[in-house]
Design a protein that fits this description.
The complex is a heterodimer. By secondary structure, chain A is of the alpha+beta class. Chain A is built from eleven helices and 18 strands. Chain A folds into three domains: about 5-120, no CATH class; about 130-280, Beta Barrel (L,D-transpeptidase catalytic domain-like); about 285-400, Roll (Nuclear Transport Factor 2, Chain: A), CATH 3.10.450. Chain A has helices at about 5-10, 40-50, 55-70, 75-85, 100-120, 120-125, 220-225, 255-265, 285-305, 310-315, 330-340, and strands spanning about 130, 130-135, 140-145, 150-160, 160-170, 170-175, 190-195, 200, 210-215, 230-235, 245-250, 250-255, 270-275, 280, 345-355, 365-375, 380-390, 395-400. The longest helix of chain A is centred in the last third of the chain and has 23 residues, at about 285-305. The N and C termini of chain A lie far apart (about 60 Å). By secondary structure, chain B is of the alpha+beta class. Among the domains of chain B are: about 10-35 and about 105-230, no CATH class; about 265-375, Nuclear Transport Factor 2, Chain: A (Roll), CATH 3.10.450. In chain B, about 45% of the residues lie in helices and about 10% in strands. In chain B, strands 1-2-3-4 form a four-stranded antiparallel sheet, covered by helices on one side. In chain B, strand 1 and strand 2 (about 340-350) form a beta hairpin. The longest helix of chain B has 23 residues, at about 145-165. The interface between A and B is large, with 45 and 53 residues.
């Protein structure tokens, strides 16, 4: 009998209540960088009060929360419930009679997402997302988004290792993640970066304090035939604090305060924004292992290129290799042709980033500056490769200028 | 249906509420010991009340001013003045009077209650809530203030829901059904009224003889979740439903019934019998029998689900300790298969003793009269 709203919420989404004890925020978070800036700690306390049958305190705290976030709809809903509980029994979160069920379930989902994220924050802060294998030295921050959890994680580049800074509640596409088609109301999953900054004055109120377009569709998306455009990170309309977890036509939406906070750390064209349906986290050891094995592989490729043994070099490429206009056979033929004229080759790569692509395929996006020199040709370029694991071996499946 | 409806929390919150009521009533013994202001000139008061009943408000006001002039510190005269001003439509003045009363006699719950009713009429529900909470703080067992506070909480909840869901229910029927208290019981000495002439004047005692019954805003619960409909639409539905309910409700007969005729007509006798049997089932804690007096389309308070309402009632009725419920002073008006009955309900439990005006609307179902609506006042 000791469970009520919060019990309902968490039971309903199948979380074991063993992660972090609710109601004692920040006390058991040894990670100093953790930020408690959003309304989650207060929400968790409110549900804790409800859980312990202190409805008066819960109402007082909800009113305090609303002072701070007057347009926070979920808090208004909880307030309504707590008031109604004084005049009649209530059975669930959101007891507004005659209200559209859709809107109620939106707010319930928001409550679940926020509370779940708050409970699991310890695990997030201690582990490393699998995608951020290596950051370029000039990438100061990286963003990882988990659509299912409705969460954006901000990481700082600490000598190539991502260090957790803060996390924020986000909304995504009405129909979820895994964008394929124009207008499918889904958010793409993949490795992206912001391409520009659109100031609020040029946007409608829907986008809030600003917008940051992403480079969807990227090389891999195009190759997979994914369509659509105009996927942005943006803010929230002025009459709203936050939107439900699934609310946009595919964009990733933050509260205006959070967008401002995140935007401070965005480097246009540089900051990686990795969107996943469900972020995988690795322990530091496992992350280190995966990172070194890939770096080793990249170095082998570079060495084999310098060795001028064309067949050995070509072994790094997948049979499905494809650039914009060349397939593997054409690529191999071209390499064999120019290979005979080479007396020496020097390849230097620097400023490398390695990001694992979210999803079932084992795919890694590698970007670096390449300094190629040989007896008859030299060039410098920024190159991007997609490496795929085929039969246990990492192979290059795409490469091109970045 | 709601996402999490099959969980045990319902029962728990019911228990919480029942618990609250119990603990409030436990301290009600104090209430009767409160004899703050001196008893006013009972004759003058009775005269004023008579004038008010006859609708001679200006004369009533005049007499009240005289009473106040003779006893400026007395709460009774000022309280009556507040009532007269309210009935004269001078709400702002009435608010001023009741506000001063709460300042001068912070221990009296009635001025707070009436202040709250006035605020609620102006849709200032936050102020109404504060006033009622004060009334209950001083008199935790005050039944009418509890009923009113329940209504105010429901109003505030509905406002919060509107903000949560971006609905606009301002067009809903917002007529307040809060009860004004017409008498200052707590100013009277603990002694019972010395003249037990119960048959004559509707009793010079106790609690509110309430307003000429206003139809309670009835919000029907949603029939089915309209999944794909545009979101703004459903907001209008409850308003229509409320309007319909209002129309459907038979107006109490304008003709004031005299004292109960010794020979009641057959129908009236049936109705009286039905209510007596309802009260006795309640007294006997016969939950099944009690609930069997309610029609299938009984309008539960605030449109709560029937099941929830039934279990709440079962809990209240079946709580430990003796309960004695009796009903009298029936005023019955019949319109076809419907009857509106105004009566007094005397309720005594181990911890609470109240006597309140009630209105019940019954419908004829076969040979039985079943309760379709029930409200205080």
């Amino acid at each position: 009998m000791r469970r009520t709203l919060i019990g309902l919420l968490l039971v309903a989404c199948g979380i074991a209540g063993s992660l972090v004890v609710i109601g004692s925020p920040s006390r058991n978070t040894p990670v100093a960088t953790f930020s408690d800036s959003g309304p989650e700690p207060q929400l968790a306390r409110i549900f804790g009060e409800i859980e312990n049958n202190r409805l008066d305190q819960a109402l007082t705290q909800t009113e305090a929360l609303l002072q701070q976030y007057p347009k926070f709809r979920l808090a208004h809903l909880i307030k309504g419930d707590l008031l109604l509980a004084r005049s009649r029994p209530i059975s669930t979160l959101g007891n507004a009679g005659g209200a559209p069920e859709e809107k109620l379930s939106d707010l319930r989902e928001e409550a679940i997402a926020r509370l779940k994220a708050y409970r699991e924050r310890g695990a997030v802060a201690h582990n490393v997302p699998r995608y951020l294998l290596q950051l370029q030295p000039d990438q100061k921050y990286a963003i990882v988004i988990d659509t299912q959890k409705a969460r954006l994680y901000l990481y700082q580049n600490d000598n190539g290792r991502p260090r957790f800074v803060a996390d924020y509640y986000v909304s995504h596409g009405k129909l979820g993640a895994g964008k394929m088609l124009e207008g499918d109301k889904k958010t793409p999953t993949g490795v992206y970066h912001v391409t520009s900054s659109l100031p609020a004055q040029k946007l409608g109120d829907l986008y809030g304090v600003g917008a940051y377009p992403l480079n969807y569709p990227n090389e891999w998306d195009k190759r997979q035939g994914r369509k659509g455009h105009g996927i942005w990170l943006h803010g929230t309309p002025s009459d709203t604090y936050s939107r439900p977890p699934k609310a946009s036509d595919g964009c990733v939406v933050l509260t205006n305060t959070d967008l401002d906070a995140v935007a401070k750390n965005l480097q246009i064209g540089l900051t990686p924004v990795i969107i996943s349906n469900s972020v995988e986290f690795l322990s530091l050891d496992d992350w280190q292992k995966e990172r070194s094995s890939l770096n080793k592989k990249i170095d082998e490729w570079r060495n084999d290129w310098e060795s001028r043994d064309v067949e050995r070099f070509l072994k790094h490429y997948s049979k499905n290799f494809q650039t914009r206009d060349t397939n593997f056979a054409q690529f191999a033929e071209q390499k064999r042709k120019v290979g005979s004229g080479k007396e020496w080759i020097k390849v230097k790569i620097s400023n490398t980033s390695v990001f694992r692509n979210p999803g079932k395929e084992e795919l890694v996006v590698v970007t670096f500056e390449q300094d190629y020199q040989s007896n008859n040709l030299s060039n410098q370029m920024k190159k991007r490769q997609y490496w795929i694991r085929e039969d246990g071996q990492w192979k290059i499946v795409y490469e091109g200028a970045a | 249906m709601f996402l999490f409806s099959e969980t045990p929390s319902l029962a728990r919150l019911t228990a919480v509420l029942a618990g609250l009521v119990l603990c409030f009533s436990a301290s009600c013994i104090n209430a009767q010991q409160n004899t703050q202001a001196a008893p006013a000139n009972t004759q003058a008061v009775a005269e004023i009340q008579r004038l008010m009943k006859q609708g001679q408000l200006s004369q009533a006001l005049e007499k009240t001013e005289q009473l106040i002039a003779s006893k400026p510190r007395d709460a009774q005269g000022r309280f009556l003045k507040g009532l007269i001003l309210t009935e004269s439509g001078r709400q702002q003045d009435a608010i001023a009077i009741f506000t001063r009363l709460t300042e001068d006699f912070p221990e009296l719950p009635e001025p707070y209650n009436n202040l709250a009713v006035l605020y609620a009429q102006q849709k200032q529900y936050d102020k109404a809530r504060t006033a009622l909470e004060m009334a209950i703080r001083t008199h935790p067992s005050y039944a009418i203030a509890h009923e009113n506070l329940g209504d105010v909480y429901a109003k505030l909840a509905s406002q919060a829901y509107d903000k949560a869901l971006q609905l606009d229910s301002s067009n809903k029927s917002t007529q307040s059904k809060l009860s004004m208290i017409k008498d200052l019981i707590t100013t009277k000495p603990g002694a019972k009224p010395t003249t037990p002439t119960e048959a004559a004047v509707p009793t010079p005692t106790k609690v509110a003889t309430a307003e000429p019954a206003k139809p309670a805003p009835v919000v029907t619960p949603p029939a089915a979740p309209a999944a794909s409909k545009p979101t703004e639409k459903p907001a209008e539905k409850p308003a229509e439903a409320a309007a319909d309910a209002k129309k459907a409700e038979p107006k109490p007969s304008p003709e004031p019934k005299l004292e109960k005729a010794p020979v009641a007509s057959g129908v009236e006798a049936d109705i009286t019998k039905a209510l007596q049997s309802w009260a006795s089932a309640w007294s006997n804690k016969d939950v099944k029998g009690y609930l069997s007096h309610y029609a299938g389309d009984f309008q539960t308070p605030n449109g709560m689900p029937r099941k929830a309402w039934e279990s709440e009632r079962a809990q209240r009725i079946d709580k430990p300790g003796k309960i004695q419920v009796s009903v009298d002073n029936f005023k019955i008006s019949i319109a076809g298969d419907k009857a509106t009955v105004k009566f007094r309900q005397h309720y005594t439990s181990a911890t609470l003793k109240t006597s309140a005006a009630k209105t019940i609307v019954l419908v004829k179902s076969g040979s039985r009269w079943l309760i379709q609506q029930e409200r205080v006042g």
